[in-house]
# Entry
Amino acid sequence: MAQPEQLLYSKEHEWVRIEGDSAVIGITDYAQNSLGDIVYVELPKSGKQVEQFANIGVVESVKAVSDLFTPISGEIVEVNSVLERDPAAVNRDPYGEGWFLRLKLKDAGEAEKLLSLRDYEKLIAE
Amino acid sequence: MNQAARRTALYDEHVKIGARMVEFGGFEMPVQYTSVLKEHDAVRHRAGLFDLSHMGQFRLSGEQVASWTDTLTINAVASMKPMQARYNIFCNERGGTHDDTIFYRLADDRWLLVVNASNASKMWELLSNRPSGVRMENRHGEDALIAIQGSASVAMLQPHVDGDLASMRYYFCVETEVEGIPVVIARTGYTGEDGFEIFVDGAYASNIWNALLRAHARDGLEPCGLGARDVLRLEAGMPLYGHELTEEITPVQGGQAWALKLAKPAFTGREALAQQLERDDYARIAGLAMAGRAPAREGYPVYVGDRRVGEVRSGSFAPSVGGGTNVATALLERDAATVGTAVAVEIRGTRHDARVVATPFYKRSR
# Structure
């Protein structure tokens, strides 16, 4: 499981873990807790190109539908298939088993537009 | 949060135990305490405790309450016995639904009428034009309502009450005491499980709430929010005003024709409802089971082939249906509403397979 300190964050409550020329993304613990019991995750398919901060899918709890945004641009190379049959993995382990996508990075420089853990914690404390 | 939202007598108790509060029906209400699914599970397997003090409570008295309200409702009022409760619906002239309610006959000439929170002002207004012999007191927001629902309800509530709860019949009520506090207890609910609703002066509500939680939390009694309640009532096939019943959707369309007593003397909406039943050509509420994992939500269009045949009115993941299924109610054209019909629900531009199924989706084993 990734340590929250090693991740970057978006204002829309997604996290990114950059690993060389690829990145793994998911939603934060704060996000899963706000959403409540997650019953469905709709993600794009491998091969799709996505642009930073674009709407790429939805996360649904029992009560509500929420948009999912990608914190970084790239080509989707892997989708977490666990979420198809067990979307509650996002509630149990948002930084580990409940990851969403792996992307092949388009521009590593985009990371500058993301937040550190400290800045993200400030954001959610507001 | 809307500044004008009122707080129930139990507001502080909810905040103390970490409830997530939302505005509903003009009140700040707990939507969940821990998890909608965990609270749902408690009610289906043990018991859950609900604050429903946002519901409107009207106290009516006088010899003419029954004969008068019989002219405003579709089900029979005068034939109720003392201590009986009965579901009833107030309609407009077109047969559309003003509100779905429960009448509790506390004595020959004393009644409790419980209306939906969102309709309480409208209903008070509607009932203001009453015969001079009828007295009415609006206890909305003053009297609290606490429900305990689930198979363990009798065992958990009994030690706190005078009188035998197990022998009390479904849809009956009694004036008694809980923890020495005067209450009305009714064997009614909105979850599809056995259970009781406790009507009490708001000043004493927290005594009862805390006594029950303190005594039975270790046996699995969970405080439950409106999130769990909505899933429970949908599974149990119970209508929610604003969804399956509205000023436009009649009780005949909404699946409540069982409550329609056409043989009783004239009442508002009677002609429209009788004609609608006779013609049998109306759009009606049907149950849908989704084939896949994507939940159907209110407003999503429903298709048979390329033809739009209606729309979803309520939808949720339903843990108690087939080990976990997305179910929905939809208002569908007559021919599309037959059980077994293959339909598609459009979700974000994509059609998802579903089938019309019988309701209720869930029935407890008795």
